[in-house]
Amino acid sequence: MQSLHLSSLPAFEQPFLTISTILISVFSLLLLLLLFFFVLQQWCHQVDKRRLPPGSMGWPYIGETLKLYTEHPNTFFFTRRKRYGDIFKSHILGCPCVMISSPEAAKNVLVNQAHLFKPTYPPSKEKMIGPQAIFFHQGDYHLKLKKLIQSSFAPSVVKGSVSAIEEIVLNFLPTWENHALICTLQEMKKYAFEVAMISAFGNNLEPEMEGIKHLYQILEKGYNSMPMNFPGTLFNKAMKARKQLNEALRRLIEKRRGNRKSHNDGGLLGFLMSAQEQKLNNLSDSQISDNIIGVIFAAHDTTATVLTWLLKNLIDNPHVLQSVTTEQEGIQRKLVEENRGLTWDDTRQMNLTSRVIQETLRIASILSFTFREAVEDVEFEGYIIPKGWKVLPLFRTIHHSADFFPQPEKFDPSRFEVTPRPHTYMPFGNGLHSCPGSELAKLEMLIFLHHFTTTYRWKVIGDEDGIEYGPFLVPKGGLPIEVRRRKCKP
């Protein structure tokens, strides 16, 4: 039997068949849509009976992700808080979530009931950093690592890095001269990366560091790319670099293990290897590698972003810049008289500059929120948070609340002359998973500002005063500036 082709039909029957096919297709699509919305309605009805917080889940799958990343975060969070209250539901990055914006609720999630809310990240990020990094764990393994990492970043240890960080600054800043345009964010990433390397490996870096730096930079380029592991994609290149990085770190650990003196070179690697040899933990070399890479990630982008906002806030507030410069000039005169470099004690005298950093951390709120995941159905503030839902303490909303910081959009370092109310100021997180490297981050900012404000002046190029994500919230274009030496120095 011959098959029937459209061309073999009489001309008057061809349109009829085409219309019939279209109608059947449309009808089938409508049935599928009705079935989808029926299932969605049943799901919503079932969930509603469990007393979810008020809020909007947005579009199916997409949720409110596009709104989050196209609106100013203050607008996104404050609009919903005003409409729904301090606790509300949403759907972002493919996940149903509950957002909380009161200090008390944030404390409960991050401190009081931390065992019910585990840290969580997208699987692609875990693969890239390393699944054994401290960020992805809780319980005994996390506590063991936390103690070791805190020891490595304790003030008694960090103070020994002052001269090394100052040397980085003194070598770094002259490279900004004679350039018509500087992208502040990109330059700050270079500076923060150098500091992160000495914090991870110590002050005396081996020749292998150049190769490790190169592999890390490939890894970083793929960190915020779409997780498509196909040849040629940034993600694929990053995963290959991650494998090579693991091997390079393994060889470095073996080399240091054969040279006991290198354990004393400092850095987190030295601490972890010493603890390993003294049998203070059961860490494998792979676990050590994951946590070294994790520390570099944590110390890199966030610090660079804060430094970028610092320069913007200072140029936008000339009276604050002048006050900071005056404070730093006083310290500089002392250094010249005594013919020496900066010390830890000098940085403890930078009171006004420290308050400028505190206010920048508050108003910029680099970490707008953090992710946690309910490990079981949790009754919370009169609502149910279902198991598997993400929970987001909104640091930015708390930092920008007039209840805790009057005139919150005003840049006012003097507000930190008084200690903020507990759990209202959390630039480095809170609880067991707070950032252990906060002292190092503040130190590298202070040392940078000392030399930059006493030696240089800068102006922003262009008149666009916007923001963008890179990956954290930054001034538009990464803050393009022109830098020049000051005409006179004290």
Automatic annotation (TrEMBL):
Pathway the protein acts in: Plant hormone degradation; abscisic acid degradation
Location in the cell: Membrane
Keywords carried by this UniProt record: Heme, Iron, Membrane, Metal-binding, Monooxygenase, Oxidoreductase, Transmembrane, Transmembrane helix
Catalytic activity: 2-cis-(+)-abscisate + reduced [NADPH--hemoprotein reductase] + O2 = (+)-8'-hydroxyabscisate + oxidized [NADPH--hemoprotein reductase] + H2O + H(+)
CDD domains: CYP90-like
Cofactor: heme
PROSITE patterns, A to Z: CYTOCHROME_P450
UniProt main location, coarse: membrane
Sequence positions that bind heme: C435
Top-rank taxon, per record: Eukaryota
One Pfam family it belongs to: p450
Any GO BP annotation: response to water deprivation
InterPro entries reported in the protein's UniProt record: Cyt_P450, Cyt_P450_CS, Cyt_P450_E_grp-I, Cyt_P450_sf
Enzyme class of the recorded protein, top EC level: oxidoreductase
Transmembrane segments: 16-40
A Gene Ontology molecular function term of the record: heme binding
E.C. code: 1.14.14.137
Similarity comment: family membership: Belongs to the cytochrome P450 family.
Protein name: (+)-abscisic acid 8'-hydroxylase
